[in-house]
Task: inverse folding
């Protein structure tokens, strides 16, 4: 028995062979398609009533003259001979003579192809970016009035034939308003701008027809990408939305209190932000390479100003740790050069924005933290649990869900609990929140003070200090929704209540 082993070096040759066979198959199918089309066109010309001689000489021409012209053109020969000669001349580039102008047809076709190519090129560079932008913008506002407007306008323009929209555009912009020339041809001495003016009206009908198709495809693709499981999961797991935008957008704008405070290429804004607000936003987000041992997440103190309350100066001045009297007096629009294009920043001190002082003190380095863990009082504990246990009694049987768990968290620390389903994670969280009563001997402390076992016995500050961040905050903590809607959603999901039953449910 013999065994053959293919070396890895043979893999590229095998792939190249498959690609060559694929291309050869496609080329062969294309040639067959072209041949079939030529047969259909030739047969269609032969099936038309009348003959070539009569069409050229007219209906009153002498029959002998018609027969002589048909013989001269070869129209009286067998069909297979005519087809073979027609194909042979076409392959050589001989399109024959124009009976109207008595000149070769080739130059007329070449001239028309040049104009058609120019028209198609300009229509392409206009409609493709416009359609993609409209589709993406529509997807980002799915279900809103902007989405409906773009969709209806695109579909309406698509169903209107080009000759109808062309006539309407000529009447409006060429005849009534006289803004644009109604002829696509321009004099030989015309410059680039004049040539472009002559091409606007011919290009617009093509843009109107294809905009709807491209916008619909772009919208569908964007909606599918934004609604994909991996996208939703990444956002729910904490992946910032700016990461998604950074992968999809070439430029980014940063809004604050209704004003664009920074705008530029995505890479420039994320790598070298030039406005304190952008710097603060990025410092609030976890990034690769950042460790809580040396640099914890920062915060932005204060809140948004009331609409219309800032009438002069920088709108961000009250929250900015770089602001001075100049910032409160003068509005600062600046546009500077960056690695990937111009970058706009409404900040007098945009060069120092990256050095913005932090709102919170830095954590100590690793060795200092180790010393603190060994008893240094500078490591103040925020939350401490000691010998935390919970036993459930089911049908007379004791089930220990949490068994003797001890942990502590200092300021700025994050504790991750992992485990399989039913491992006790949810029960432990409920014990910390006071939603379940722990077993005797369990100890809970918050900021060094004893923490009551039940949430009903805790004061307001203690309740505020321990809060749940829901897995889907867009639905559970959306400030645009009323309190009734938020509470009703929980009753509907967890209590199986619907409609009026939610309003009639008595308080616990």
Result:
């Amino acid at each position: 028995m013999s065994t053959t082993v293919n070396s890895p070096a043979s893999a590229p040759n095998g792939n190249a062979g498959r690609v060559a066979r694929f291309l050869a198959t496609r080329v062969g199918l294309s040639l067959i398609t072209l041949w079939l089309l030529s047969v259909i066109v030739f047969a269609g010309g032969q099936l038309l009533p009348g003959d070539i001689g009569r069409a050229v000489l007219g209906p009153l021409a002498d029959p002998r003259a018609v027969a002589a012209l048909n013989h001269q053109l070869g129209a009286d020969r067998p069909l297979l001979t005519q087809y073979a000669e027609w194909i042979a001349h076409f392959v050589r580039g001989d399109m024959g003579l124009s009976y109207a102008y008595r000149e070769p047809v080739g130059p007329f076709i070449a001239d028309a192809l040049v104009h058609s190519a120019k028209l198609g090129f300009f229509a392409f560079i206009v409609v493709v970016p416009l359609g993609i932008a409209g589709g993406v913008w529509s997807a980002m506002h799915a279900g809103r009035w902007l989405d409906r407007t773009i969709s209806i306008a695109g579909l309406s323009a698509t169903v209107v034939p080009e000759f109808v929209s062309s006539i309407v555009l000529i009447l409006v912009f060429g005849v009534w308003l006289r803004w644009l020339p109604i002829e696509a041809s321009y004099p030989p001495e015309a410059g680039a701008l004049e040539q472009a003016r002559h091409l606007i009206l011919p290009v617009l009908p093509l843009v109107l027809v294809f905009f709807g198709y491209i916008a619909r495809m772009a919208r569908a693709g964007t909606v599918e990408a934004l609604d994909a499981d991996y996208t939703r999961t990444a956002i729910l797991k904490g992946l910032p939305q700016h990461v998604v935008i950074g992968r999809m957008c070439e430029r980014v704008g940063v809004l604050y209190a209704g004003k664009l405070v920074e705008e530029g290429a995505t890479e420039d804004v994320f790598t070298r932000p030039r406005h304190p607000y952008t710097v603060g936003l990025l410092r609030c987000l976890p990034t690769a390479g950042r460790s809580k041992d040396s640099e914890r997440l920062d915060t932005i103190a204060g809140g948004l100003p009331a609409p219309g309350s800032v009438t002069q100066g920088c709108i961000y001045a009250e929250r900015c740790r770089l602001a001075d009297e100049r910032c409160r007096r003068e509005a600062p629009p600046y546009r500077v050069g960056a690695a990937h294009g111009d970058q706009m920043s409404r900040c007098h001190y945009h060069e120092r924005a990256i050095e913005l002082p932090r709102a919170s003190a830095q954590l100590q380095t690793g060795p200092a933290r180790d010393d603190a863990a060994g008893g240094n009082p500078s490591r103040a504990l925020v939350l401490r649990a000691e010998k935390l246990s919970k036993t459930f009694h089911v049908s007379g049987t004791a089930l220990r869900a949490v068994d003797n768990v001890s942990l502590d968290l200092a300021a700025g620390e994050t504790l991750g609990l992992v485990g399989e389903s039913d491992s006790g994670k949810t029960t432990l969280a409920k014990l910390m929140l006071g939603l379940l009563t722990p077993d005797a001997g369990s100890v809970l402390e918050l900021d060094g003070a004893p923490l009551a076992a039940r949430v009903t016995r805790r004061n307001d500050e203690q309740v505020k200090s321990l809060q749940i961040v829901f897995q889907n905050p867009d639905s559970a903590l959306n400030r645009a929704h009323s309190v009734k809607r938020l509470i009703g959603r929980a009753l509907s999901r967890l209590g199986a209540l619907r409609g009026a039953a939610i309003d009639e449910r008595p308080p616990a």
User: Anything to note?
Assistant: Residues 1-12, 362-378 have pLDDT under 50 and may be disordered.
